[in-house]
Amino acid sequence: MIDVVLAVLQVLVVAAGAPLLVGALRTLKARLVGRRGPRVLQPYANLVKLLRKEVVVSTTTSWIFRVTPYVLFATMVVAALIVPLVLARPVLDFAGLVLLMYLFVLGTFFLALAGLDAGSAFGGMGSSREVAVAALAEPTIMVAILALALRAGTTNLGGIVERFTHEPLLAANPGHLLAFSALFIVMLAETGRLPVDNPATHLELTMIHEAMVLEYSGHYLALVEWASAMKLFLFMTLLANLFLPWGMPVTAAPGTIVLGLLVLAGKLAVLTVGLAVVETTVAKLRLFRVPELLAGSFALALLSVLSVFLLR
Amino acid sequence: MAGLLYIVAFVAGVAGAGLGVAGVLDATWSLRVEAAIPLGGLELTMDPLAGLFLALVGVSTAAASLCAIGSRDPAHDDAGAYLAFVAALGAVPLAANAMTFLIAWEIMSVASWMLVLDRRDDAETRRAAWVYAVMTHAGLACLLAGMLLLQVHTGSVRFADWSAAAPALPASVRGVAGLLLALGFAGKAGVIPLHVWLPLAHPAAPSHVSALMSGVMIKLGVYGLIRVGFEWLGPAPAAWGVVILLAGAVSALVGILDALVDHDLKRLLAFSSIENVGIILIGVGGAMLFRQAGLEALALLALVAALYHVVNHAMFKSLLFLGAGAVVHGVGTRNMEAMGGLIKRMPWTAGGFLLGCMAIAGLPPLNGFVSEWLTFQALLQNVRIEEPSLNLVFVLAIAALALTAGLGAACFVKAFGITFLALPRSEAAAHAHEAGLATRVGMVGLAVICVLLGLGPTVVVPVLGAVAGPVVGAAAPETWGDLATLSVSESFARLSTLAIAATLVLGLALPFVALVLAGVSRRRRLYETWGCGRMLQTARMEYTATAFADPFKRVFRFFYRPVKRLELDVHPASRLFVQRIAYTNPAASIFEDWLYRPVLTALRSLITLVQHLQSGSATAYLTYIFAALLVLLALR
């Protein structure tokens, strides 16, 4: 029973929290460059507006185009049950980092197919670029996972977080910091943030994610945007709980859950400010400079792993 | 008549699958007919490893034969060679002595060569068959030399005797025999750089034969490598493990990079077979290294991962080749740039092909994901080998495998998206026809097996553990988890694909139900794709396969060394009036340019030198004989 409650809670927190995170990020970024920016709650209003609108579907498309928003949303629901959120132990407690990364690939796979489905050049361009960036981020993710697994003795997400909550000093060594930087760069790439992709622009020749979803409208677009926000939320939560595991409650009880939510909100607030600062201080990279950035992140992850081998 | 032979092949496939499964479940037997062939006689032995490969041959044969019945073209029908090929495929894993093995191996090679030479009036096909014949016989020569060497030093042609005598063999004999056998088997498996025949031969064969060649024949090379590395020559030294691991990593990466930029649908699948053999060899090499370090439990896990991928790849690659065969049959070309929109004309094929693409891209909860996950879990535990240089090799293999997985997803987005989605790019694609009933049944069967292998690792892994246990000399672990959840190395990692599938279904239903309940309008307006205000959408505005692969070409330009040839034909009056533009980007292969061409050039100049001996005059030959006699007498 408690598991079902927790499952519902985790999905609700992710689904409801994601637009807030995106809204806060946009407002912060606007303030940092001296604009007033939209209100924090604007993404909710956008979702409601999109849900009310009629859907326009291209005659060229097939069923792939119509199921993709649902598949994308479903992968985020599963991911929401895998990532340790308020408690150290997630609902699907068997799950590990490798599974999480492959789940994100599942979403990208379908989204890229949907981008090709309408037969517009923009969609194909977005798809091609999105899968290229995602593929190049893969080695960093796996090597960073290795770095974490080496220190925690497991690739199980709940296991890693529990280990670090019990031994907080483990999470405070330089190798860990390197892995964090590596995964932070991967997050920028995977969720389409600056300097890899600019989520605020609709300039055809530079966009990646926005080009791929160009044909979506109405509730399809709402689902796609919502799922993208959830992906960002989940990545930030993952970074927060894997690398700053302090204060996470281990046992489930009403009190600890509230405490866990507050701790999570605090950590996400810190990371959001960090992300906003990063995004306002860097310029977008040319597409073919992105591999260099990802190679850099791979080097960081590799150093993190080597530090374990050499210092044991 | 030919149809009957295919039905015989189908029945034989089903029977072989049953026999193989029984063998996997430990129904071992052996058969010996002394008089059948010289030098040791015909000898077949069933053990779990042989059973596993026989079962794969059986299932793939059954599906491929169904498709052959469905899409037979009487003008190109070689049912006899097909039957011989299938029989030899089944006999290779069962062979228990060198002579039986080599005969079955050679029948397999020659029969498949005849099948590759399907359209013999086509120059490209003839070249493919020629390269295939040369490479496969170079491999056979290596196998023959290695086996003869072992026969000389152990005094037996039986594999079981080799295993028993291996520890007492001098290191040099083990090394040379191991190298020769490994070269022979790696050539058949399509390991880089011995792969050059594979992307030529597999697409040239009829699709049901391609399915068998990619699905099971190259796996028999892997089978040989496992036998050599773990049994015939005793436990392999660490250096072999490193070589196999790195060869696997390089094959995986190079295979998928080549697949990404290839727009011939069947050649793309052939390149991806090289990639998958690489993934399998990463597991095999890891198992060798773990075993050498005394970590039998981890060696078992790595080999189970490799065998799981062997099974999976046989299933989804057969499915993909049958799907590609249906597409080629329906459209009349293998060129992806002339396809598109087939999902509407060929819904069954599209569904099967999509499932195959998802499985091969390693998407959860399908079977490709499970075996890649297992491989990662084995590799991630390399820290238990306390040898930093080996750890570094493992880290590189992990990174290569991860990049391969990412590129694989991209490659199969291209393979499915360009072939089946958007508008048809040619007249033929616009009028393509769906595959016949038998072909569809074959594809659906394989697709169901892919799903089951994905959902049931808790059943499959213990069985594979029992197969791999005797090979690596490890006892099976006490538990692989319960029926719902797979547990690896106690609590190192766990996985429940059933739970993932269930949550995915719930996650699919959740927004759907929620939108209905919230009363969101599900009105849909059909309209054409937005096109910046142009009037009409045509297929020429679509993204092409070449364009899709372009970012990869730029990122990995050190590997592809892309060449662009742009020829402009301008009007004499002004170069601004372009009359004709020709754009080509010919592909070059590093291996052909840097490895094979120098070797062939050297060989050719050597032959030119030797040619002077062959004057054609009888007196010269008599002189040679006389000289040889004198030399022999002097030596005596």
What does this structure look like?
The complex is a heterodimer of chains A (312) and B (636). Chain A has helices at residues 2-32, 42-52, 63-82, 97-117, 121-152, 157-166, 174-190, 209-212, 218-243, 254-281, 290-311; one strand at 55-58. Chain A is mainly alpha-helical and 312 residues long. Chain A has one domain. In chain A, helix 1 (2-32) packs across helix 9 (218-243), helix 3 (63-82) packs antiparallel against helix 4 (97-117) and helix 3 runs parallel beside helix 9 (218-243). Chain B is mainly alpha-helical and 636 residues long. Chain B has two domains: 2-167 and 189-473 and 482-501, no CATH class; 564-636, no CATH class. Chain B contains 24 helices and seven strands. Chain B has a two-stranded antiparallel sheet with strand order 1-2. Chain B has a two-stranded antiparallel sheet with strand order 3-4. A two-stranded antiparallel ribbon of chain B has the order 6-7. Chain B is globular and about 95 Å long. The N and C termini of chain B lie far apart (62 Å). At the A-B interface, strand 1, helix 3, helix 4, helix 5 and helix 11 of A face helix 15, helix 16, strand 4, helix 20 and strand 5 of B. Strand 1 (55-58) of chain A pairs parallel with strand 5 (524-527) of chain B.
